[in-house]
């Protein structure tokens, strides 16, 4: 709803959509860190426009799983197919996939030596070869959407955590991603800033963005998720609609986890 | 409940308005008491420092200015017996030899060419170092491409356009010192960055090659590198091609400095958090773009003190090129020391004092400039 009132999309900013109906498909994915088996036979299919929330105890492999989707981590067995393209060692293909898959990190990872505006225009200019003027126009559009256009010429270090995370979201959006990955986007924020970031994500979901979100914000999961995934010890142990997931958890581990975080 | 409503310090009943900080006005006497004589130990240190200043500064001032001889055409002017008092620096000697200190044996009639190169270089350096200068991209093009070509043609000569050929064996003095150090500085930074990246590369062959280069070059004295460059460089080149005798130590100095630079830059790279790489990669930036736009600007900024340290070391190390027969500033000073026209007890001291002042001004200038840059960058992005 917040989004409906956002500024008009610039004319040259065409909405991008996925080429296929399956945004991400993981088939029998395994990964090891040395001897340590982090991901064990992960199977997951995310369809276009779907919102998936991933939760689970710390160290269960949630980050590792979504980082495999844009190859920040390499899987050693199984297949990962992103919008019809399989992830292999082909560096060119990896960069192409990364262009179309936005990622928001727990610690924002903004570039501290660049202004907010430069953070947002860098990739469109250098990766998408967009003229600077167009890139700035798009950046201002998205900064307006995340409600901080007035901060455009400041440096990340001068903004609050919540503002920085919203900039990080805007920076991803400037690349017109087809899929957005979020890795605990609100965990590093002071409580009063969580809502502003979640609001931004909700409005993104309402626009039909395909999203995979690692979070423990159960309110967010209830509101926007199509499916909730619960991970434990490198495996997906439960996958259900939010209603069923919260009302009727099947797995012992899930029940314990929910009782801990929902008090 | 009978709770007393006495004014209790723990809980405010009304908000306090903002107040100005307490007055800090203090005279210089208070300042001295606080900073120089605040305790017995502090007072002793202050007195020792004053005594050292008393020992060092007045004699230096006497040597450089009060007792100095400023004019004269030969050694007679600087002999204590003729002057009738103690003689400090014999600036008359420096004055007489100044043009040799600056140009070496560069032919008299062609020294205007060197002057033009100095002027062009100073212009380029000012353009680059002045951070608010207009068109700094063009300035870089000028300094790194146009200026070197022009300087080479002017200094070396080009008979086709009427510039008589001047062999590098005639070049000398400050001219050579500046050439060796500026080439060393300009080459060692990019080469050092490449070596540092190579040392962190995931490709084992590149990593190994960089480690071997850095450790070998860093592990031997510069004199060895200079001798090796002098004798081995001709062996690498085919047949009758023999590299210029000035070029050889130039390569040696540049390679030597780049090995040090590589380690300085690597220190900066290590200080960049993994998240910066991940942020850049997740946007689809390839390796080189990520390095150039995200990682290196931050890494180099962190290690500016180390980089300038290496530059200053390199600048002073250029004096060693005299070992392989190059007439840098120190060497030209030494040559004039045996000139009987100026043989006095203070000539040697004066010559080295002159060289010392020259090196100090250059190095201190670099140091101050880098401090200014650091302060400015720090003001831009507060973390
Ligand atoms: N680079 C790494 N090397 C070795 N082990 C790692 C590395 N990254 C993560 N791990 C381990 O893998 C497990 C899963 O990590 P992670 O995916 O970050 O969990 P989560 O995000 O669910 O908290 C943890 O036990 C963690 O210690
Ligand atoms: Mg995690």
Automatic annotation (TrEMBL), chain A:
Q: Name one Pfam family in it.
A: ABC_tran
Q: What InterPro entries does this protein map onto?
A: AAA+_ATPase, ABC_ATPase_HisP-typ, ABC_transporter-like_ATP-bd, ABC_transporter-like_CS, MetN_ABC_transporter-like, P-loop_NTPase
Keyword check for Zinc-finger, yes or no: no
Where is each ABC transporter domain found?
Answer: 24-258
User: Mind listing the GO molecular function terms for this protein?
Assistant: ABC-type amino acid transporter activity; ATP binding; ATP hydrolysis activity
Which E.C. number(s) belong to this protein?
3.6.3.-
Q: What class of enzyme is it?
A: hydrolase
Q: Which UniProt keywords apply?
A: ATP-binding, Hydrolase, Nucleotide-binding, Transport
Instruction: Report which superkingdom the organism of origin falls in.
Output: Bacteria
- Asked if Transport is a keyword of the record, the answer is yes
Family as reported in the entry's similarity comment: Belongs to the ABC transporter superfamily.
Q: What is this protein called?
A: General L-amino acid transport system ATP-binding protein
Q: State the organism of origin.
A: Chelatococcus composti
UniProtKB/TrEMBL annotation, chain B:
In Swiss-Prot or TrEMBL terms, this protein is called: General L-amino acid transport system permease protein
Q: What is its main location?
A: membrane
Spell out where the chain crosses the membrane. 36-57, 112-131, 138-158, 170-196, 208-229, 249-269, 290-312, 349-367
Name the family the entry cites: Belongs to the binding-protein-dependent transport system permease family. HisMQ subfamily.
Source species taxonomy: Bacteria, Pseudomonadati, Pseudomonadota, Alphaproteobacteria, Hyphomicrobiales
Q: Which PROSITE patterns does this one have?
A: ABC_TM1
Q: Which residues form a coiled coil?
A: none
| Alphabetized InterPro entries for the sequence | AA_ABC_transptr_permease_3TM, ArtM/GltK/GlnP/TcyL/YhdX-like, MetI-like, MetI-like_sf
Q: Which UniProt keywords apply?
A: Cell membrane, Membrane, Transmembrane, Transmembrane helix, Transport
- Asked if Cell wall biogenesis/degradation is a keyword of the record, the answer is no
């Amino acid at each position: 709803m917040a989004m409906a009132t956002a500024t008009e999309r610039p004319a040259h900013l065409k909405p991008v959509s996925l080429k296929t109906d399956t945004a991400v498909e993981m088939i029998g994915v395994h990964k090891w860190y040395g001897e340590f088996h982090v991901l064990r036979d992960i199977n997951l299919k995310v369809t276009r426009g779907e919102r998936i929330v991933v939760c689970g105890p710390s160290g269960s492999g949630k980050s590792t799983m979504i980082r495999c989707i844009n190859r920040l981590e390499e899987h050693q067995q199984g297949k990962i197919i992103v919008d019809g393209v399989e992830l292999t060692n082909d560096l060119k293909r990896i960069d192409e996939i990364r262009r179309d898959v936005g990622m928001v990190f727990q610690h924002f990872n903004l570039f501290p030596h660049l202004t907010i505006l430069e953070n947002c225009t860098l990739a469109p200019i250098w990766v998408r070869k967009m003229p600077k003027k167009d890139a700035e126009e798009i950046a201002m559009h998205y900064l307006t959407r995340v409600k901080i256009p007035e901060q455009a010429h400041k440096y990340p270090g001068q903004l609050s955590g919540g503002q920085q995370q919203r900039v990080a979201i805007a920076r991803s959006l400037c690349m017109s991603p087809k899929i957005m990955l979020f890795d605990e986007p609100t965990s590093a924020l002071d409580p009063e800033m969580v809502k502003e970031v979640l609001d931004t994500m909700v409005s993104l979901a309402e626009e039909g963005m395909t999203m995979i979100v690692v979070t423990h914000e159960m309110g967010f999961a209830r509101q926007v998720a199509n499916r909730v995934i619960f991970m434990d010890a490198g495996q997906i142990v439960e996958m259900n609609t939010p209603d069923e997931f919260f009302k009727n958890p099947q797995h012992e581990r899930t029940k314990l986890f929910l009782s801990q975080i929902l008090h | 409940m009978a709770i007393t409503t006495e004014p209790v310090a723990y809980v405010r009943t009304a908000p306090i308005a903002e107040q100005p900080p307490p007055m800090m006005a203090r005279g210089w006497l208070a300042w001295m008491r606080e900073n120089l004589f605040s305790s017995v130990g502090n007072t002793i240190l202050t007195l020792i420092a004053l005594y050292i200043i008393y020992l060092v500064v007045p004699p230096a001032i006497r040597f450089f200015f009060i007792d100095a001889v400023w004019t004269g055409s030969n050694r007679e002017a600087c002999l204590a017996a003729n002057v009738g008092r103690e003689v400090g620096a014999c600036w008359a000697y420096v004055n007489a030899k100044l043009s040799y200190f600056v140009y070496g044996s560069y032919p008299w009639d062609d020294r205007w060419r060197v002057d033009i190169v100095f002027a062009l270089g100073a212009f380029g350096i000012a353009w680059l170092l002045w951070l608010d200068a207009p068109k700094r991209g063009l300035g870089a093009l000028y300094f790194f491409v146009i200026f070197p070509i022009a300087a080479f043609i002017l200094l070396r000569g080009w008979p086709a356009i009427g510039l008589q050929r001047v062999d590098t064996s005639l070049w000398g003095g400050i001219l050579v010192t500046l050439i060796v150090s500026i080439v060393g500085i300009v080459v060692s930074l990019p080469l050092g960055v490449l070596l540092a990246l190579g040392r962190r590369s995931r490709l084992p062959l590149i990593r190994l090659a960089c480690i071997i280069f850095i450790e070998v070059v860093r592990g031997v004295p510069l004199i060895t590198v200079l001798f090796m460059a002098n004798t081995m460089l001709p062996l690498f080149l085919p047949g009758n091609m023999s590299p210029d005798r000035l070029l050889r130590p130039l390569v040696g100095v540049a390679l030597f400095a780049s090995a040090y630079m590589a380690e300085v830059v690597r220190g900066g790279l290590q200080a960049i958090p993994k998240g910066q790489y991940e942020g850049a990669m997740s946007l689809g930036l390839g390796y080189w773009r990520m390095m150039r736009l995200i990682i290196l600007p931050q890494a180099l900024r962190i290690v500016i003190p180390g980089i300038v340290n290496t530059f200053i070391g390199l600048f002073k190390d250029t004096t060693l090129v005299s070992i392989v027969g190059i007439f840098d500033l120190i060497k030209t000073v030494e040559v004039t020391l045996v000139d009987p026209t100026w043989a006095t007890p203070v000539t040697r001291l004066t010559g080295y004092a002159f060289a010392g002042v020259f090196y100090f001004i250059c190095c201190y200038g670099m140091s101050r400039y880098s401090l200014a840059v650091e302060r400015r960058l720090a003001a831009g992005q507060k973390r």
